[in-house]
Write a structure and sequence with these properties.
Length: about 250
């Protein structure tokens, strides 16, 4: 069964066609990593999946519900999706705990005590139980990103979308965030991850999608797309990522 299905998705900004007919799906419980050069449309693809951008044409289904249908309850549909961005977007004036409870209470209408219980469970999952009463500015970037992951998980999403979650982090903080994501994958979370972390993609992804200039060039298991790419464009990209400075 697919959690996400994308059919012939197109997106233009004015005259610039950024997505030129994207088709793929993410099966329930699977991890799909999207790789590709800067400007190839990876973020736009993710933003179309959660309708932060309105696709020009095509269809997006999540849990069998068509998000692109004109009659869909977009707020309800979007609640199925957890999103983690490069920038963590935490509320600076709220504690870590409050950052993780606020949407549960306001959007899901959970009573405070339940929201706090679920927040603490998820903070434990990302290894930050001791930071519940801290403010974001008192945390490292990697810790803030893990709070953002806990905040998304607390909403019980069917799917987690990650857009380069580690690329704003100092190198020594990347590992902890990837470890949390790895554990999520092992726990069976369905994940769509834009990343430049080839080690993560190779070890954790069920499938790797290589995008270039608004199309999917290759889509397959990491052993194929990363280890034995079929297309020149994929080979050149991987060479640049794996051997920067060559
Ligand atoms: N809101 C927008 N308005 C106009 N053009 C946009 C908008 N968002 C993205 N674009 C353009 O769409 C193209 C794809 O951008 P996108 O951010 O999806 O690329 P990306 O693959 O995520 O790149 P990166 O690896 O640098 O994050 C770029 O040419 C970008 O300038
Ligand atoms: Mg991007």
């Amino acid at each position: 069964m697919s959690t996400v299905e994308i059919r012939n998705l197109h997106k233009s900004f004015g005259k610039l066609e950024v997505l030129k007919g994207i088709d793929f799906s993410v099966e329930t419980g699977q991890v799909v990593c999207v790789i590709g050069p800067s400007g190839s449309g990876k973020s736009t693809l993710l933003r179309c999946v959660n309708l932060l951008e309105q696709p020009t044409s095509g269809q997006v289904f999540v849990d069998g519900i068509e998000l692109t249908h004109p009659d869909v309850d977009i707020d309800a549909a979007r609640r199925r999706l957890g999103m983690v961005f490069q920038q963590f977007n935490l509320f600076a004036h709220l504690t870590v705990l409050r950052n993780v409870t606020i949407a549960q209470e306001r959007v899901l209408k959970r009573p405070r005590a339940e929201a706090v219980r679920i927040a603490r469970e998820n903070l434990e999952k990302v290894g930050l139980s001791e930071k519940a009463e801290s403010y974001p500015a008192q945390l490292s970037g990697g810790q803030q990103q893990r709070v953002a992951i806990a905040r998304a998980l607390a909403m019980n999403p069917s799917l987690m979308l990650f857009d380069e979650p580690t690329s704003a982090l100092d190198p020594e903080l990347v590992g902890d965030v990837l470890q949390v994501m790895r554990r999520l994958a092992e726990d069976g979370m369905t994940m769509l991850v834009v990343t430049h972390e080839m080690g993560f993609a190779r070890e954790v992804a069920d499938r790797v999608v290589f995008m270039d200039q608004g199309v999917i060039v290759e889509d397959g298991p990491p052993a194929q797309v990363i280890a034995a790419p079929q297309h020149n464009r994929t080979r050149e990209f991987l060479h640049r990522v794996l051997h920067p400075g060559d």
